[in-house]
## 1
Amino acid sequence: MKDKFYITTPIYYANAKAHIGHAYTTIAADALARFHKLQNEDVFFLTGMDEHGAKIQKAAEKAGKSPQEFVNNISEGFENLWKNLNIKYDGFIRTTDNNHKEAVRKVLQKLYDDGAIYKGEYEGLYCTGCEQFKSENELVDGKCPDHNIAPEMMKEECYLLKMTELQKELIEKIKSDEFQIAPERYKKEILSFLEGQKLEDVSISRRNILWGITLPFDEDHTTYVWVDAFLNYLTGLGWNGDLNDIPKQWPADVQLIGKDILRVHATIWPIMLLHLGLPLPKKLFVHGHILSGGKKMSKTLGNVIGIDEMIEKFGVDGTRYLLLDAGTFGEDVDVTMERMVEKYNNDLANGLGNLVSRVVKLVQNFQFSISPPKADQPWAGNFQTISNDQTLNTLNNIEIEKALEYIWKIVRDANKYIEDTKPWESAKDESRKEEFEKVMQKLVDDLGLIAELLIPFMPQTSEKIKKALETKKLDEVLFQRIK
Ligand code: MSP
């Protein structure tokens, strides 16, 4: 039987247009999903939209639209962007889907019947940006550091989810890696948080937020948006909330998330699953934030790099590459337009693009006959023949930039090989025919290998290289230098 591989991105708030941070996670998930598909695994890649809650209600009011009309529009924009970026997801969940809403209600009823949810009151400081209560010690100068706004004091009757009784079990599962949190330092961070204090029960309902899923056992309350949102990871697989009929893809193999949403994903989410008796995700992989010029991107600072702007300038595969290789996946990465242009010119125009055009020109000019790839050659479309290579190990460990570094070493070495061996000289000398053929065959093989290895990251470029090898011509210059 095929191994299964289920990967998710967070679902994005439908309160504003997609930005580079959303694209960062989604492109990474796409590359990983494509990589696992190439290994013949039964892959499901889920992404989608988080469409309820106070933040969205407010944004819709401001835009003078009904919340549904508003989220329809935003979600369409996200879907279009994913199409443009060549993202091949298997499921796109929206929390306003009827199936999702019904399933959430079923789950909540079950938790209530089991006594995991009880009625009470909650008082605390609420940040609408995070859609979370904040403790005093999380604030900087009285403000939420992520949103730079002072949270509002809220006190209301609500329903609460029991957290404390499952805290010990959760700690054990994280420690043993049954529920793995990676990279390691995030595991440490969460363990030190969980071991340092008693988890408070969490309010899972709101009285004054109408834009949400009504609680099945109390119509005066709507579901807290995070509880609603987490269940997407199951309903996105078509689950209807029936605990006797859990989708075969569950548990998720990898859940990609940004570091700002680690705490909720490592506490409320697994505790909900434990209450339901469901297995926890196998791995929560946490990535850092994209900064620009050392600072968080913000309109006020004027350092925002638009994703559409990137696609226009660097093309789809150029954008995918620059984001995937922006730095160590897992740490904060800093991007500026200037550095991206430089990297584009170095790695793509002068590096890969130049290599492809040189090899194809040599093949054309000296009529080198490319024999069809043998079955065991990687570019015969057999990704698995390179299964011992470094890419596989690095990508299984989600070390995306290391996989790319490995590929670009082949690119650089091949460009250097051309300079060292000067095949245009041996081509003209009958006595060096053998040498010429050997050099050319190596270059063609290298290019084939590069094309195959690039499939997860730059699928269109990979296709173009393969086509050039087959037809012995390039229809276009790959990655023109830019200013
Ligand atoms: N809706 C919640 C997630 C619910 S999942 C059950 C949410 N949405 S979000 O749209 O605000 O953020 C989604 C993801 O985008 C998060 O993982 C977040 O870390 C990521 N990013 C948002 N801005 C980012 C950067 N500037 N850089 C990298 N990723 C960032 O949170």
Note: Residues 337-471 form a domain with the Isoleucyl-tRNA Synthetase; Domain 1 fold (CATH 1.10.730.10).
## 2
Amino acid sequence: MIRFTVLTIFPDMIKQGLDTSILGRAQAAGHISVEAINIRDYTLDKHQKVDDYPYGGGAGMVMQAQPVYDAYKAVEDKCASKPRVIYVTPQGRTFNQDLAKELSKEEELVFLCGHYEGIDERVLEEIVTDNISIGDYVLTGGELPAMVMIDAVARLVPGVLNNDVSAEFESFNDNLLEYPQYSRPEEWNGKKVPEILLSGHHANVEKWRREQSIIRTLERRPDLLENANLSKKEQAFLEEYKKLPCNVRR
Ligand code: ADE
């Protein structure tokens, strides 16, 4: 069970994004909980403002420290110990499957979503434990990245996917991409399903899939192969495959 809490000025966005489909079911079943806290509810400003002009001038507005801090404190008060607080920011370390795995071991995760030109640095220094980005591009706010990370972490929580096997054997496990999948009919648009998948020979199917994963990773994400866990035989297969001229590959 992981409790996800998102500090945001757009709580509806989080609820609408995460209360549906698999994560909606996972919440109903008690495998995870997702709470969105509206930072605006904590402002002491009489006009409900949460942002102000940046000292030193410049474009845009800055989210003020007070409402963010008070919203966070309300969450911390309900936790047994200080939770990991993730500031969702393009300035953070880049999120990946290893980090998703690491975060899935926590019981409590708080995501802080910024808007405008950012959040007053002083409150970030006070509460943030991790700065995490979802990639080298800039979005309008932290809500979508927070949802991306929550989805990736939640699906690793036991019980969230109906079979544990599918969480394990997917793209990025072992640093290999997933093999191609086929379903009925046996022939579609003149294209046949690879013969071996119809053979019923389990060991051969597994070997073929593993090889397809290796080929696919070589072709699409060769950078991943450096950290892939290949057996001696698989390494030999890869070396032989690389020697093939492009037109006879696959
Ligand atoms: N906020 C805006 N862009 C972002 C990104 N790429 N990752 C995380 N948070 C962000």
Note: The chain has a mean pLDDT of 95.
## 3
Amino acid sequence: MSAKGRKVVVIGAGSVGTAYIYALLPSGLASSIVLIDKDDKRAQGESLDLAHCLPFIPPVEIKAGNYKDCADADLIVVTAGAKQKTGQSRLELIQSNADVVKQICAEIGKVKTDAVLVMVTNPVDALTRIAMDYLGWPAPHIIGSGTVLDSARFRYLLSKHCDVDAHNIHAYIIGEHGDSEVAAWSMTHIAGLPVRNYCRICNDCNYEENLERIAMAVKDSAYHIIDYKGSTYYGIGMSLLRISQAVLRNERSVLTVSTLLSGEYDISDVCLSVPCVVGRSGVEKIVKAQLPTSEQSALQKSAAVIKQTLEKIHSWMVCG
Ligand code: NAD
């Protein structure tokens, strides 16, 4: 990838796709951004509107395009498909969005590309796996945005509760991006200290109770936002910028993206989030942590939930 060769193709010109581009534009990270949507007028309108940011940001080409643009793309970000309605779980989107992802992969599969693909459409873990099956690319080149957003929400809520800058909090949500996700307390550090050690020093609250409440609040974040305003997009937009930086700058950043596990954490054949080193080729390394029994078994339950979803899709495909 040349210095100027940072081409990003975004498929899905809805709230998430455009919030991501709006975060990407001022970063100067991309040299070229192409927006694709089945509703071409929407893609045209959004790209024109976004192009009017150009006098205020580093130079970048932005336009509506088509799947041929994937050929020389460095990053393809898939945000197309149905979103949750109030009270609906992400898993309930699977049937319609599996069809959307299959259509999109069929189009991308027609061009030869070295791009890394980031799946965002929900349920993201199952759809990351479906994209792998359809495209047949090396697994590390296809990543799901996974729990990067949930981990950000976790750090935000811990930071509010502990009154400490979120940058000084290392914390990961692992497993499904959904109801079975797991707060990895064993990997949570504040000011470099394991969280419970920090709590003992701080001694400001009944931390056992509060930690549990914070993990629940992370899980329920999207439901609350969807209830208030219909959908979530700014947090995921910024999470996608973070993943893009890691890939396009080959940063080798540790992020909880959704990736195919093959025996790591005693889990196989399913995409879910664990801390991964992310760089130019996508997932460069899966960080294999030794989890305590409670977190390990919660992670395995989460993997089982995603596997059940995939089995449902396979049975629909066989029947239909
Ligand atoms: P939206 O309704 O605003 O936009 C969806 C866009 O997808 C529309 O413009 C639509 O025309 C387009 N589209 C649908 N089918 C298509 C196809 N076959 N080809 C091309 N374009 C197609 O929805 P949104 O709020 O932007 O959400 C998009 C997806 O992102 C949803 O599935 C949502 O659940 C998901 N999401 C994921 C996360 C995450 O953390 N992974 C966070 C928020 C939202």
Note: The mean pLDDT is 95.
## 4
Amino acid sequence: MSDTTARVPVQFAQLTGRSILDSRGYPTVEVRAMLEDGTRMIAAAPAGASTGEHEAVERRDHGRAYDGRGVHGAVAAVDGEIADLITGRSWDRLVDIDSALAGLDGTGSYARLGANAVVAVSIVAARAFAHTAGAQLHQWIAEQTNSAQRLPVPHFNVLNGGVHAANALDFQEFMIAPVGAATEEHAVQTGAEIYHALAGLIRERFGSAGLGDEGGFAPQIEDPRMALDLLVDAITTAGYTPRVDQVAIALDPAANSFYLGDGRYRVNGLEFGRDQLVDYYLDLIGSYPIRSLEDGFAEDDLDGWTAMATAADGRVQLVGDDLYVTDPARIRDGAEHGYSNAVLIKPNQIGTVSQTFDAIRTARDAGMVCMVSHRSGETADTFIADLVVGSGVGQIKSGAPARGERVAKYNRLTEIETDHPDLPYGLA
Ligand code: PGA
Ligand code: ZN
């Protein structure tokens, strides 16, 4: 890892954990640190619902409280073993802390300490290094990852289905991406105006609709085409142009959740073989301004991934989320086999910030692009906003342009833009 920052060692005087609520009302781990100079910093772990099989493993109490989802064990690990490891000595590099955490855990998946404890500690440590180096977090990340900073195209998840919503829509996420916006501020305004137009259309056509976990609407739609028609209508109603270089659409079907096994899928009540699903996606891509398709196939259906990549032939961004789980080794393997041309980046899937940097570098070296992502269970922590700007990957998804835990990230992006108006906006 290249490190051009002056090496000012970091010393932690105190490190403590705490159980807080995430955006679904379940516990997650918050970590608070105090440095030797008295500076305090804080970080919190997000939590997924449609998780990949190979993700770093969260530690849950499995007791009676919160349906077994308590995190007192993970908090105790922060207060005990992890604080003992980290406090009372000085650290030169984040990667040293992250490697020590992996060594202390010893499982290869953070199952013992808890990935929810480890990722929050790693993020708080990243903040400590940036502070000690006298840099903004995004600037420090740019130096650590040897990147040109860039304000990303936000992908607003405005219609929710799958395991994130109570409706019958099999596809999990329908996103709008203001690719053609001039600035981050303009992109956020575009997303919010389309979200409001969509609210009006849904009121007209469905009376009312619930919300999904990421703040998108969850009307009683089953057919993905109906959802796409609604999006196109909302984009034009708000006065924008639905086009891949203006306001584009991105899909995350999260196909693990409708995979039947043996290369078979069920969407909208119909059963598809993998080649039929490829044709179905190509048809959608031909009919709507879709720029990106994430987890169109199940993580185990590698033949599906290969078939789609071959058929799409670079015409659409194919993003691996559950497929790669932000794991550099899995990303390398995917690049060699040509499963996709893009990688979703979620720090808590792999466990530490250093490994997240490795994942981004691995993707970049393989000629793949990255999209930084929140989780469906979130907090007010804005680390991913600094991560996406600092790494310069040009794309983020953080849910709808509504609800505190989602807009915290978008508001942090516009804050960075306000402070650094010269940073370029857009796809990398
Ligand atoms: P998750 O979903 O955070 O529930 O895993 C997000 C995604 O699939 O991209
Ligand atoms: Zn996904």
Note: The two ends are 21 Å apart (CA to CA).
